[in-house]
Amino acid sequence: MTDSKYFTTNKKGEIFELKAELNNEKKEKRKEAVKKVIAAMTVGKDVRYTFSDVSCTQDCEDPNPLIRALAVRTMGCIRVDKITEYLCEPLRKCLKDEDPYVRKTAAVCVAKLHDINAQMVEDQGFLDSLRDLIADSNPMVVANAVAALSEISESHPNSNLLDLNPQNINKLLTALNECTEWGQTFILDCLSNYNPKDEREAQSICERVTPRLSHANSAVVLSAVKVLMKFLELLPKDSDYYNTLLKKLSPPLVTLLSGEPEVQYVALRNINLIVQKRPEILKQEIKVFFVKYNDPIYVKLEKLDIMIRLASQANIAQVLAELKEYATEVDVDFVRKAVRAIGRCAIKVEQSAERCVSTLLDLIQTKVNYVVQEAIVVIRDIFRKYPNKYESIIATLCENLDSLDEPDARAAMIWIVGEYAERIDNADELLESFLEGFHDESTQVQLTLLTAIVKLFLKKPSETQELVQQVLSLATQDSDNPDLRDRGYIYWRLLSTDPVTAKEVVLSEKPLISEETDLIEPTLLDELICHIGSLASVYHKPPSAFVEGSHGIHRKHLPVQHSSIDTGESPVSGGPAAAMDQPHVIPSQGDLLGDLLNLDLGPPVNVPQVSSMQMGAVDLLGGGLDSLLGGDLGGGVGGSPAVGQNFIPSSVPNTFAPSPTPAPPATSSGLNDLFELSTGMAITTGGYAVPKAVWLPAVKAKGLEISGTFSRRQGHMYMDMTFTNKALQHMTDFAIQFNKNSFGVIPTSPLPVHTPLMPNQSIEISLPLNTIGPVMKMDPLNNLQVAVKNSIDVFYFSVLIPLNVFFVEDGKMERQVFLATWKDIPNENELQYQIKDCHLNADTVSGKLQNNNIYTIAKRNVEGQDMLYQSLKLTNGIWILAELRIQPGNPNYTLSLKCRAPEVSQYVYQMYDSVLKN
Amino acid sequence: MIGGLFIYNHKGEVLISRVYRDDIGRNAVDAFRVNVIHARQQVRSPVTNIARTSFFHVKRSNIWLAAVTKQNVNAAMVFEFLYKMCDVMTAYFGKISEENIKNNFVLIYELLDEILDFGYPQNSETGALKTFITQQGIKGQTKEEQSQITSQVTGQIGWRREGIKYRRNELFLDVLESVNLLMSPQGQVLSAHVSGRVVMKSYLSGMPECKFGMNDKIVIDKQGKGGASDDAGKSDLGGGSGKQSIAIDDCTFHQCVRLSKFDSERSISFIPPDGEYELMRYRTTKDIILPFRVIPLVREVGRTKLEVKVVIKSNFKPSLLAQKIEVRIPTPLNTSGVQVICMKGKAKYKASENAIVWKIKRMAGMKESQISAEIELLPTNDKKKWARPPISMNFEVPFAPSGLKVRYLKVFESKLNYSDHDVIKWVRYIGRSGIYETRC
């Protein structure tokens, strides 16, 4: 007999018939009718009216436990508020039933009831009954109670509804060994919400959870991984157990990849997170992420992502060979991602860049349209990472100009042409060809084209004047797009006001792009680690992003090692690692604004020789700008502030933002100060800077007084100076030069003093520095000889650079590397110093030092003394390792420094001393 | 937790719809059909979020199974549950097909009520379920029988019922391995691994306690300290080297295995389910016996001719026979004609697959065989060189390429009067090729 016939009935008056049949006296007929009702419900028919006839006569008192359980299960399914009150008594009985099957069903029923009437469940004390069941002798009852309580607590104001204490945890761990695979998953998920009180407790839980990594059910494995990943935070990083645990995590994760594709997908999404959080776990396993030809596309794409994250110098050859293979596959998305991956490898592993570029060129030769376009986009990024290195391939790129039809690829190509305009003979023709359909292009292409043509003009002013005029008028007059208009006006004004500055601004050296892209923001990453195995880890979004209502109101955090961080602080450790991932911090908007304003508000600019460029610019003013600017800009500039404000861009366009401020504000006008105020908020606090000292007294320099200091802000070094004119005549034509020095320090830009320095006037100058100049060892090591020239004379002086400006942001050594290096450096290189009279606790010390890029890698407490292990790196790549011993009650700290170049140690010690005492 | 479960046929018509939670509306059924089953594009993810509702799906032949939720559920668990549900359905009525589902829909609803309560997965072991979910009803059980059922379903040993009796206690153990290889033309192993499974069919009375032992390096090394290992004198079953122990990279076990015991003592002890199940899965990468070696020789004769010679050597004991051997030699896309000569078996050029397929039914160990082919090419002006895909192989051998050996499988049943000696045990080793490729 088959049941499929129930799906086929489709008569009128069906409901009526069903009702009649349900009340038929023959049992067989009634049974048939119930089946028909279910079939009708399945296909979506409204059979509500028959429900009163399907009577539920089962009793919670039935001697058969299966019937009792069925009754309590069905009760919970009658989701009508009014009826629920009648359920309380039977449910209470069932929760204490002698049969475990009834109890485990009753436990779930509490969750059902809570969903209908939460208040009643609480008033009736059912939550307490559930909590009692955690101690039940039957593992499945425990598991269901845990599942129910966990879900209720997600929407409950008291998040510790389960009352997780060491006794209960112990009960859960015992049940863990005995219950079903699903029960194990519930218990592990619940355990992951527990915060062990110390590392010993964390370790003992981990020891009892690790056997679960061998379970055949991937949910059990992933939930165990979650518990371990969370509790790892609490274990001391130098302990043997910590490292053993890390090693144990890798094989089960690899094994998950031999499961069914859907589970592989879940596993890969999670591995993606784990690799970002703890790359050491899987760094040896890159091969298992190589794509198989019959993997489903979603598995392929995820594997590719992880491959790039694991790519390193050691395995790059293999990875590249694979990627090249993938780029010839059929799935367009996959191929594109593979091409993009090659570019990301080039950016990540410098040694491979050349090979990657030639691979990309090979791919471009295939002439497959989407491959070519994707390749061009990534080549642009390679140029941004390694400027002036691969421009020989530009010719090949230009051959493919006509085939580019996607905005991304067009924009990339235009950017390349603009950036390297001076080396492309027909750059003007190429850009002009894009200009024809300007208004049909996407905004992205329009903006890039505008910038590219301005760059071209600044590089080859004589031939491209017409072109730039054309694009400026297209952007400002014929376009409605505010970004485009604003950018157009900015360029126009820049060009017309001061072509030299314009050149400095537009053609300035751009910061290199960072290595890692697509990283998940660290606080989110930490939150997602707490959700391993769940949907949140699949979506890479916090639950609040896709869950409605009150579920998941409690945000999860990684546990925090109690000893090292004050309890008052936020439990999520964003950590220094987070900050280091973006070494090139974009200058704040305020800076840029101030700067642009400066062009408007400052006194007339004195450019010594009138260049052809400026002539061109003056010509431009004959055009539409005159009316806008009030007509007198061509001569003297100095437009009134009111006019100037009209031109403050409403938003600073994207491509503009990454360029560093080439010339910080040099005026002391009142308006500029206003902007300084707003700027201050955006600037992150930098390291310690020595107060300004007089470097060049006025008596020795014919009235010019220079006081200054050095500082390091946002990854860049600055020489901050105040020039004061104490003479009776004005001073102009300032310039600065450094002698060769130990660290190769040279100014990045000329001295940004464009205006005459009037008698009794002082200006603040912040001169950006870099360390790519010639190197000569000085004595003392940090000595710098400076020459400053002005219209009166040349003056020489020497200053000592405080060493902390050379401490780079990525000076945090990995723990293992630190240990190995410490052992590796001979003992005779170790120098010891005393830091006297310091009354700080270890955490404050770490914090202060970290602001100066001295990173605490580990902290140990040995016999009551705090031992801080720290590392820092100098701009020239020298690593300095430190051990700082702090005894409670003793204001004298002992500092041991180890370095392969011990001569710097003394200066490092001086920095420690000054940083800690300020 | 899981809010609802739907089963659709290939057209997207609903066959089963079971909603556990109020937050899943009726429109959810349609949302999945419209957005996934009827989507024009190929499925890009097994998890789909439509209007803040998440759908997890798996496909079995042309049947779609979808679990729905609005919460942040354990995603791995949902998929594992869907797989489990397929297993249960298969165990009850065979292949998962539209017809079978329609014929058994009452049973399916009954099962869904039992294995998923308010969306929480419950005991889903077929052995236990079959004791009380039948289409006959559960009348006429004695009180003992009833409490036996409930304690089994909720108990520690949910996968086995009590009171099983066989006249002949028998068990079958299959060690099934697939060996994967990527080799360079010069014979250098680029990557090789074995993924293996131990599949057991047990027909044992009562509640037997089993202990399984294999030549796991860690165990053998441990025992080696105490005394002579017990398999030192035995001849090896496989055809490879006479090594005593193997290093297992990782293994996972059926839930019947006591994991904490494995973790602490590395002993595999369990009470087996009745009938067939997978006891363990494992992976090895060290000291793999590669049953075949492929030696390719490709020579380009001018622009229109290619000479290919491939030698295969079997690398195991001469007394053993490999079966179902197939060598697949890729040919360029512009191939116009192929002439093949082979010493053994049959070889054919298959234009549609761009390959020469060489099949040999049987081949003993320590033998070699050769094929040579002349491939005529059409002249093309395609500058791109032929990428030379690797030569792949398929085969089946009667030993475990990982070197894994079953040392013992002891059965203890204290209550019934049969001992380990009375159990008839069968062990079989099958090694198959996974992705077994040699670059040329």
From TrEMBL, chain A:
Domain Beta-adaptin appendage C-terminal subdomain: 807-917
A matching Pfam family: Alpha_adaptinC2
Coiled coil feature spans: none
Compartments it resides in: Endomembrane system
Superkingdom of origin: Eukaryota
Single Gene Ontology MF annotation: clathrin binding
Sequence ranges assigned to domain Clathrin adaptor alpha/beta/gamma-adaptin appendage Ig-like subdomain in this UniProt record: 688-798
Keywords: Acetylation, Membrane, Protein transport, Transport
GO cellular component: clathrin adaptor complex; cytoplasmic vesicle; endomembrane system
Topology in the lipid bilayer: Peripheral membrane protein
Name of this chain's protein: AP complex subunit beta
Similarity comment text for this entry: Belongs to the adaptor complexes large subunit family.
Chain positions covered by the region annotation Disordered: 564-583
GO biological process entries: intracellular protein transport; vesicle-mediated transport
TrEMBL record, chain B:
GO BP field: endocytosis; intracellular protein transport; Wnt signaling pathway
Residues covered by the MHD domain: 168-439
One Gene Ontology term of the molecular function aspect: lipid binding
GO cellular component terms given for this protein: clathrin adaptor complex; clathrin-coated pit; plasma membrane
Binding site for a 1,2-diacyl-sn-glycero-3-phospho-(1D-myo-inositol-3,4,5-trisphosphate): 346, 348, 350, 359, 361
Subcellular location: Cell membrane; Membrane, Coated pit
Record CDD domains: AP-2_Mu2_Cterm, AP2_Mu_N
UniProtKB keywords: Cell membrane, Coated pit, Endocytosis, Lipid-binding, Membrane, Protein transport, Transport
InterPro entries (alphabetical): Adaptor_comp_med_subunit, AP2_Mu_C_sf, AP2_Mu_N, AP_mu_sigma_su, Clathrin_mu, Clathrin_mu_CS, Longin-like_dom_sf, MHD
Recorded superkingdom: Eukaryota
Pfam families in UniProt: Adap_comp_sub, Clat_adaptor_s
Topology versus the membrane: Peripheral membrane protein
SUBUNIT field: Adaptor protein complex 2 (AP-2) is a heterotetramer composed of two large adaptins (alpha-type subunit and beta-type subunit), a medium adaptin (mu-type subunit) and a small adaptin (sigma-type subunit).
Function recorded in the entry: Component of the adaptor complexes which link clathrin to receptors in coated vesicles. Clathrin-associated protein complexes are believed to interact with the cytoplasmic tails of membrane proteins, leading to their selection and concentration. AP50 is a subunit of the plasma membrane adaptor. The complex binds polyphosphoinositide-containing lipids.
Family recorded in the similarity comment: Belongs to the adaptor complexes medium subunit family.
PANTHER family, alphabetized: AP COMPLEX SUBUNIT MU
Protein name: MHD domain-containing protein
